[in-house]
């Protein structure tokens, strides 16, 4: 079975300027749930000064419909307190393989962030015994400020996150530059079981699905994606376009994987959000399906 981690409500919206109402975010999540997505990253308990669009996380969380497993980004103990007070059981901490990126994204070096996250994860484990933690490594291939990243550097950050107690590491091609040979090169130096790795590709240059296929061929079974290809990172210029869940679900379905996703409902789920943001749909699988409605 291949896991799809839907990150649209978080990664898809965090970078968008037009404020979206909390009601429309809750509606978006409900539509994703109805379409069959079982793991959804819905928001971030980060500083609202840094990411204003997700400043309503505390109001959104209690509005989520029962069904999927929900997760949220937590950058520090302030964020952890907010999340735990709401009963959040799945959190994600987020660092990178480049100091230049983490300094812009979370105002810390990679090493400082790992020390801070060790505290966050340990506090979370003490408070939520059945909790689950993901660790992101952004700029796993290349940093928008410092250039190409050595696979060995990324692998070290992955190992550090696993050692500090995360359940899974998601490897972010933050600016969407990676190609299949680079995926294989990075995978070849990872010293972690396949089951503890997820891949988070951005489709900035149209290589995301090819990268998914490369990772699938190596035996990896977890991928992040965003309905309608919404998204990007506020501290990664040019990082528009997460891999669209619509494209990922199509590929997996045609390969005989049971995704549990109703692709038409999925194609329609992101439409109100895209419209509110003034963005036309860009996922090819989504457009093809909508054209045949
Ligand atoms: P800072 O300014 O260094 O922190 O930010 P601070 O401790 O000095 O706090 C500044 C103010 O924020 C204070 O308020 C704090 O109370 C408040 P003031 O006293 O000025 O009124 N504050 C908070 N408020 C609410 N919740 C909190 C919180 N923390 C502090 N949790 C900080 C450091 C980490 C907080 C900040 O940099 C931050 O929030 N960054 C988040 C950036 C972000 O969300 N980036 C996008 C996610 S990463 C990504 O997209 C990549 C990924 O998709 C994978 C990939 O594609 O590569 C995951
Ligand atoms: Mg991302």
Structure description:
- There is one protein chain.
- This protein has helices spanning 8-12, 22-34, 57-60, 77-85, 99-106, 110-127, 151-163, 180-189, 208-218, 245-254, 263-269, 271-277, 284-291, and strands at 3-6, 39-44, 69-73, 90-96, 132-138, 142-143, 147-148, 168-173, 197-201, 222-225.
- With 293 residues, it is of the alpha/beta class.
- Strands 1-2-3-4-5-8-9-10 form an 8-stranded parallel β-barrel, surrounded by 7 helices. The protein has a two-stranded antiparallel sheet with strand order 6-7.
- α9 (208-218) links the parallel β9 and β10.
- The protein has one domain (3-291): Alpha-Beta Barrel (TIM Barrel), CATH 3.20.20.
- The radius of gyration is 17 Å and the shape is globular.
- Magnesium ion (MG) binds at residues 11, 172, 174, 200, 233, 242.
CATH domain topology:
TIM Barrel
Low-confidence stretches: none
Which CATH class is shown? Alpha Beta
SSE string, helices as H and strands as E: EHHEHEHEHHEEEHEHEHEHHHH
Output the radius of gyration.
17 Å
How many individual β-strands? 10
Sheet with the most strands?
Answer: 8 strands, parallel, barrel
**What count of structural domains?**
1
What is the element layout, followed by pairings?
Layout: E1 3-6, H1 8-12, H2 22-34, E2 39-44, H3 57-60, E3 69-73, H4 77-85, E4 90-96, H5 99-106, H6 110-127, E5 132-138, E6 142-143, E7 147-148, H7 151-163, E8 168-173, H8 180-189, E9 197-201, H9 208-218, E10 222-225, H10 245-254, H11 263-269, H12 271-277, H13 284-291
Helix pairs in contact: 2-11, 8-9, 11-13
